[in-house]
C-alpha cells in the first residue's frame, strides 16, 4: 500500500502553534521555514541577511488569472521573483522547535492510523477484482 501523509496539526496543538506566528504571509524562507532552520541547523541562517518587506510579499502580477483559479508554470516567479515569500525576521529557534514537535506528533498519529488501516487494502483488492486485474499484473 502506498500512503501520502501530510497531516494537519493535532487539534490540541493547532491553536498554540498558529498563535505563535507574527506574520500573515509565509512561505519559502518566511517565518516558519526560518524558525525551523534556526532550530535544526542554525549555522545555515544569517538573520542579518534576511530580506525586509516588501521583498517577500506577492507581486500579484498574474492576479487576474489566480482569482479565477488559473495557474501557469511561471506563477511562483510572477509573485516571487527572488523566490522569497513572507518575512523571516520574526523567526526564532523556539518557534521552530515547537512547530517541529507538533508536526512530529501529527505524523506519529497519522502513522498509527495507517498501521491500523485495513479498509484501504480491502478496497484496493475489490477494485482490482472488479477490473479483472490483480496486483502485480502488467497490461
Helices and strands, in order, run as HHHHHH
Low-confidence stretches: none
* Integer average pLDDT: 94
Number of β-strand runs: 0
Structurally, the number of domains stands at 1
Note the gap between the termini.
20 Å
Q: Say what the CATH topology is.
A: Rossmann fold
In percent, how much strand structure appears in the residues? under 5%
- Biggest β-sheet: count, sense, barrel? none
Helix coverage percent of residues? 40-55%
CATH architecture: 3-Layer(aba) Sandwich
The number of helical segments is: 6
Outline, from the CA principal axes? extended
CATH superfamily: Creatininase
Gyration radius (Cα, Å) is 21 Å
Question: Would you give an account of this structure?
Answer:
The structure is a single chain. The radius of gyration is 21 Å and the shape is extended. Helix content is 48%, strand content 0%. Helix 1 runs antiparallel to helix 5 (93-116) and helix 2 crosses helix 5 (93-116). It has a single domain (11-114), classed as Creatininase (Rossmann fold). It contains 6 helices and no strands. By secondary structure, it is mainly alpha-helical. The chain has helices spanning 11-20, 31-40, 63-67, 75-79, 93-116, 119-131.
Provide the fold topology.
Layout: H1 11-20, H2 31-40, H3 63-67, H4 75-79, H5 93-116, H6 119-131
Helix pairs in contact: 1-5, 2-5
Based on the model shown, name its key terms.
139 residues; Rossmann fold; 6 helices
In short:
With about 140 residues, the chain is mostly helical.
Amino acid at each position: 500500500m502506498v500512503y501520502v501523509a501530510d497531516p494537519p496539526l493535532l487539534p490540541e496543538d493547532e491553536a498554540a502553534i498558529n498563535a505563535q506566528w507574527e506574520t500573515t504571509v509565509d512561505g519559502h524562507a518566511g517565518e516558519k521555514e526560518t524558525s525551523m532552520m534556526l532550530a535544526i541547523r542554525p549555522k545555515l541562517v544569517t538573520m542579518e541577511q534576511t530580506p525586509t518587506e516588501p521583498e517577500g510579499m506577492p507581486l500579484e502580477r498574474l492576479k487576474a488569472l489566480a482569482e479565477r483559479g488559473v495557474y501557469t508554470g511561471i506563477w511562483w516567479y510572477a509573485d516571487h521573483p527572488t523566490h522569497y515569500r513572507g518575512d523571516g525576521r520574526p523567526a526564532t529557534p523556539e518557534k521552530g522547535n515547537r512547530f517541529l514537535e507538533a508536526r512530529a506528533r501529527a505524523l506519529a498519529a497519522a502513522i498509527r492510523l495507517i498501521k491500523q488501516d485495513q479498509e484501504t487494502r480491502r478496497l484496493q483488492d475489490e477494485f482490482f477484482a472488479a477490473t479483472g486485474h490483480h496486483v502485480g499484473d502488467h497490461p
